[in-house]
Specification:
The structure holds two protein chains of two kinds. Chain A has 15 helices and two strands. By secondary structure, chain A is mostly helical. Chain B is of the alpha+beta class. The longest helix of chain B is centred in the middle third of the chain and has 18 residues. Classes of the chains: A mainly alpha, B alpha+beta.
């Protein structure tokens, strides 16, 4: 008995490097590996959830994607929305970080207030914006008309919906870029700035020739971090417009959600998800390459 | 080139006075070294001359121009920083040429000047490298080069060698001296290293607690220190200070330290007389003392007896740490043929003409 028990103990002891991580590995497998594998399987099938079994159809889903006008609309909306919002967030984030990168009276209080949008829950923020942007009962049009300006249609018009969503996204996420860039600015060496002042630079030249090149790796890192969320922005757009009016604000990601969980076309939806994934991946690989070049200083 | 005049300069950081009513004049083409222990305000003075630090009160002139309210870029100065302050994202060529590019020099002129500086400093092979890829000594050369290409009126050096290893420091010291001769430039050089000051300076400006203590040629401040601080600061190991009384005996003035009594040379008489009976600080440099076996015979009246506690051998020289009663004294001398043993009693001969006497209350030099 004792020998049998000690044999088991020895067995466990010798293999503890497998036993201890086993629960974590099992959970990871169940919630990450398995769904991805299932998704990769589904993208080669035609399957309407609830109606029969998935049917293998090879690359047909991808062929369909190329002919699907809503896909191209989604790509267009994504480029417009992400391009504009990322560019503006980066620009304002940098400018405000430069402004905060000095001490002035009450600067800490101002910074604390400034990051509130970033700290707030995205869906709650989106809901409040939806109400504020309502052309009939929204407070924004009320304020505009009360000072004599014409009211806007905001998310109610296909012409202004993306610009409005960009505005909300910039309002919410610029503070995050600011925080990252500010941390970068605070870590910059002090000496080159004094050398530049003696070398003859004015404030603008110091920014252009010293700050900007030195901060570039941080800017790219901030852009990468933000783009991961932004390219698959979902909760804010879904809460405010559900991709409407019509499909005017339906990004590729939103469309793939609608296909999978609105129309229950799981096979086609999976194929679309993979396309979104590839877009995000390629963008970040490119950014990472840029960042590596920039940090070679 | 130009002279630099500082008049009644004051710098306060809140309640702390870093520079206290300092006036100095640095001549055209002079190599001036500002020296003092850390926190004495020497770097602050340099930064105020550069325009990097606002002036609390006082005036700074470069050439004939009052530069108090001028931006650093308009003062026609170049500065070499302690941490080099190279632009990390530019290669060496761009680092050297940056100041000229900003000042809109033609491209050909920039190239020519960069080449010239690279020739002078021997950094041709490094031109395409980034600062990260350079050693400390190479970075220091680039920092020098960046100053040279500008051909400024005044060069400002802020402890440029303190981050280099000892060997490199010796080499760069010589190189900076050569550079000074070659460029004929006015140089203001801040350091806490007295070897740098002694070897490179035309004149040394010794600072302590924000005030100027003494100005003079290196040998002048070494031989004739104005006060106790300068006497202790210049020289290595530093001067021995011994509290003693000035007394009159047998028709001569004597320095009576209790443990020993030394006869002052006749040349000191006039200046010692007013201090008769008072307690003073007697100073003698380690190199003005020789310790030897008592058997070798004593020198008349200028010898004290002590115990050799520790003998440090440096090769050609030795440092002997002596105890004379309660006093600790260091002597620096040539290594004797018959080595001294630690713990032995020795006679110590003093070159009395080279000793100093300081007022205990005012710290000023009496002799």
């Amino acid at each position: 008995m004792t020998t049998a028990l000690s044999a088991v103990a020895r067995y466990v002891d010798r293999r503890q490097r497998f036993f201890f991580p086993a629960p974590a590995v099992a959970v990871l497998f169940l919630i990450i590996v398995l769904p991805i594998a299932f998704n990769l399987y589904l993208m080669f099938t035609k399957w309407t959830v609830g109606l029969g079994e998935p049917r293998f159809i090879g690359w047909d889903n991808f062929v369909e994607i190329f002919g699907d006008e809503r896909v191209w609309n989604g790509v267009k909306v994504m480029i417009y929305f992400s391009g504009a919002s990322l560019a503006l967030e980066l620009f304002f984030g940098l400018m405000i970080a430069l402004y905060f990168n000095r001490t002035f009276r009450g600067s800490e209080a101002v910074q604390a207030i400034y990051i509130i949008p970033f700290a707030a829950t995205p869906v709650a923020v989106a809901l409040i914006w939806r109400i504020m942007l309502n052309p009939e009962i929204g407070v924004i049009n009320y304020l505009l008309t009360s000072i004599g300006l014409p009211p806007g249609l905001w998310v109610a018009s296909p012409d202004t919906v993306i610009a409005t969503l960009v505005m909300v996204d910039v309002w919410k996420w610029t503070p995050m870029i600011t925080l990252i860039v500010l941390a970068g600015l605070k870590s910059l060496p002090h000496d080159p700035y004094e050398a530049a002042r003696i070398d003859g630079c004015n404030a603008l030249q110091i920014f252009w020739y010293i700050t900007l090149p030195l901060i570039r790796p941080v800017l790219i890192a901030a852009l990468m971090l933000r783009s991961l969320d932004n390219l698959k922005e979902f909760d804010m757009i879904y809460t405010i417009t559900q991709g409407g009016p019509g499909i005017a604000s339906e990004t590729l990601y939103l469309y793939s959600y609608n296909v999978s969980f609105g129309f229950f076309k799981a096979g086609y939806g999976s194929a679309l998800m993979v396309i979104v994934f590839l877009v995000v991946l390629v963008f970040n690989v490119l950014m990472n390459r840029l960042r590596r070049d920039a940090s070679l200083v | 080139m130009a002279n630099v005049i500082v008049k009644n300069l004051v710098k306060r950081f809140n309640a702390v006075t870093a520079v206290d009513n300092l006036s100095l004049e640095i001549h055209d083409r002079e190599f001036a070294v500002l020296i003092g222990s850390s926190g004495c305000g020497k770097t602050t003075v340099l930064r105020m001359i550069a325009g990097l630090e606002p002036i609390t009160s006082g005036e700074v002139f470069i050439g004939d121009t009052l530069v108090n309210d001028m931006e650093p870029k308009d003062r026609d100065i170049a500065m070499v920083f302690q941490n080099y302050a190279l632009y990390p994202h530019m290669n060496v060529r761009d680092n050297l040429g940056f100041g000229l590019k900003i000042r809109k020099f033609p491209k050909a002129e920039i190239d020519a000047r960069v080449q010239e500086a690279a020739d002078i400093l021997g950094i041709h092979d490094l031109l395409e490298r980034k600062p990260k890829e350079l050693s400390g000594g190479q970075r220091q050369r680039v920092a020098l080069g960046r100053a040279i290409v500008r051909k400024p009126k005044v060069f400002l050096f802020d402890e440029p060698l303190s981050n280099l290893d000892a060997k490199l420091r010796v080499a760069m010291r010589a190189e900076i001296s050569k550079l000074h001769r070659r460029l004929g430039a006015t140089i203001i050089y801040v350091t806490h290293d007295q070897v740098e000051a002694m070897t490179m300076a035309d004149r040394i400006f010794i600072m302590h607690k924000g005030t100027l203590q003494q100005t003079g040629a290196p040998m002048e401040v070494y031989l004739k220190p104005a006060n106790l601080f300068v006497a202790g600061f210049i020289g290595s190991p530093s001067m021995n200070f011994i509290e003693a009384k000035v007394i009159r005996e047998a028709d001569a003035w004597w320095i009576d330290a209790g443990e020993f009594k030394l006869r002052a040379p006749a040349a000191f008489d006039a200046r010692l007389e007013p201090h008769a009976g008072r307690t003073v600080i007697f100073g003698v440099r380690p190199e003005d003392m020789t310790a030897h076996d008592p058997a070798a015979g004593a020198g008349g009246g200028n010898t004290l007896t002590a115990r050799a506690d520790v003998v440090e051998t440096l090769g050609a020289e030795i440092f002997v740490h002596l105890t004379c009663g309660a006093l600790a004294i260091v002597a620096r001398m040539e290594a004797p043929e018959q080595p001294l043993t630690e713990g032995q009693t020795v006679d110590v001969d003093l070159k009395m003409l080279k000793t100093h006497v300081f007022d205990k209350e005012t710290s000023q030099t009496i002799v």
